[in-house]
Design goal:
By secondary structure, the protein is mostly helical. The chain has 14 helices and six strands. The strands form two sheets. A three-stranded antiparallel β-sheet has the order 1-6-5. The protein has a three-stranded antiparallel β-sheet with strand order 2-3-4, with no helix packed on it. Strand 3 and strand 4 form a beta hairpin.
Length: 432
């Protein structure tokens, strides 16, 4: 078991890298991203200032502005280097600052960000950048590189197809501090939409996801397991038929349709429950029991929507597995020897019927990033589902990558936990 556990843990990093690499590739080369939108806005603004449009439209940006835009959205590096920087296996260029070289000059002064100090960057005969030592400024952590006129022209003409950049561009000196700041270092990047660290945005939503995730899982198991046992014992009776009709009716209703129905009837018309939100505006002013009541009052309708779809699957899984066990020889033998039927069910068959159910229990780890964006949008709950949905609409790819990474990691750990639970319940299973 130990060797199997080690092998599974060692498989998680390459699997996660492969998954995020594919998503990063799709995001990188899918048209309509945030950089394309910024270029479109600049082009429309430029056309409006010129009072019309041209068959060959310019982006409205100078080569220097275009380079800054590419650096902002991470398009200034090749694909593999950009991915390695996001992963944290390649240093990022942080605290960038730049300055242009005057015509015929090989030295220029560049301001260090956040200070009033200046450093001199020399352009060598080989076209490389060299920071001139300065006794007053510690430049040991700084690096420099040259952006050539050819690079600026190539990038500008790539963004503006069919046009030529005739105006000569100067050499540009860029200084930066290399720093490993990726996923491996716990940095999920900054939102391109809100200019806020993604991890900070996710932490604000953890309590919401944990509450709805854990509560819905506990209620689902507390209801479905006894109901599945009852249906197995009362197989082909009116009780079995009535409960089957009820749970499959709930399974057939989409959760967002149920959410709209519950909101219109019980929130808008009857006013039994609040229309939106996770808690009330005056939640902080309430007493301890008042906060509990307010939280449950807001959560009742969304929880109904979250749980209704999972009732049928789990209930029928428990029922069918228990029926298989009740038809086994060891159960019939126990009953034939005088063991009470109730004891045979609870003491023997029930434990073995839980083995397939336990295979899904490890996926409960995904409650950290759980959430249905449709339910959250209907009830105006600022959870992970709504955040991921808005990130896709707004092309906020750092949030998309962070959500994929965290949910994928939790899913793989959950599958490993399911295997360990299954092996614990069934002594016949040995992972070697």
């Amino acid at each position: 078991m130990t060797a199997y556990l080690i092998r599974r843990l060692l498989l998680i990093p390459p699997t996660l890298i492969g998954m995020t690499l594919v998503v990063f590739l799709i995001i990188r080369f899918t048209p309509g991203g945030p950089m394309e939108q910024a270029l479109l806005e600049a082009r429309m603004k430029s056309d409006g200032q010129r009072g019309g449009t041209n068959r060959q439209q310019s982006s409205g940006l100078t080569p220097a502005q275009l380079l800054k835009l590419q650096e902002q959205y991470g398009h200034d590096k090749p694909f593999l280097i950009a991915y390695a920087s996001w992963l944290g296996a390649w240093p990022k260029e942080t605290n960038r600052s730049r300055a242009e070289y005057a015509d015929g000059k090989t030295e220029t002064e560049v301001k260090i960000p956040g200070t009033a100090s200046m450093v001199v960057v020399k352009r060598t005969d080989k076209g490389e950048a060299e920071i001139v030592p300065n006794k007053e400024v510690d430049t040991s952590s700084w690096r420099a590189r040259i952006i050539t006129p050819e690079q600026q022209k190539t990038e500008w003409e790539k963004v503006n197809p069919g046009q030529k950049l005739d105006k000569p561009q100067p050499y540009v000196a860029l200084i930066y501090q290399p720093k490993f700041a990726g996923v491996l270092e716990g940095n999920l990047g900054d939102s391109t939409r809100y200019s806020e660290p993604v991890w900070t945005m996710m932490k604000r939503r953890f309590p919401i996801s944990l509450f709805y995730g854990i509560t819905s899982i506990l209620l689902t198991y507390l209801v479905c397991v006894p109901l599945g046992v009852l249906k197995a014992i009362k197989h082909r009776t009116p009780t079995d038929t009535a409960t089957s009709v009820l749970i499959f009716f709930g399974y057939a209703i989409p959760e967002f349709v149920l959410g709209v129905f519950l909101m219109v009837i019980f929130a808008a018309r009857l006013r039994w429950f609040p229309l939106e939100g996770f808690v009330s505006i005056n939640f902080a002013e309430l007493s301890f029991f008042g906060k509990i009541y307010d939280l449950l009052h807001h959560a009742f309708l969304p929880l109904c929507c979250y749980m209704v779809g999972s009732f049928a699957g789990l209930t029928m899984l428990v029922k069918n597995n228990l029926l298989d066990q009740l038809a086994s020889d060891y159960v019939r033998t126990a009953v034939a020897k005088g063991v009470e039927f109730k004891r045979a069910v609870i003491g023997h068959a029930l434990r073995n019927s839980f083995i397939p159910v336990a295979a899904t229990m490890g996926q409960a780890l995904t409650v950290l990033v759980a959430g249905s964006f449709l339910v959250e949008r209907i009830f105006d709950i600022d959870g992970f589902g709504l955040m991921g949905f808005n990130a896709l609409l707004e092309k906020d790819y750092p949030i998309v990558m962070a959500t994929v990474t965290v949910s994928g990691l939790l899913l793989m750990l959950g599958n490993l936990l399911s295997d360990m639970i299954t092996a614990r319940l069934d002594p016949r299973i040995r992972f070697e």
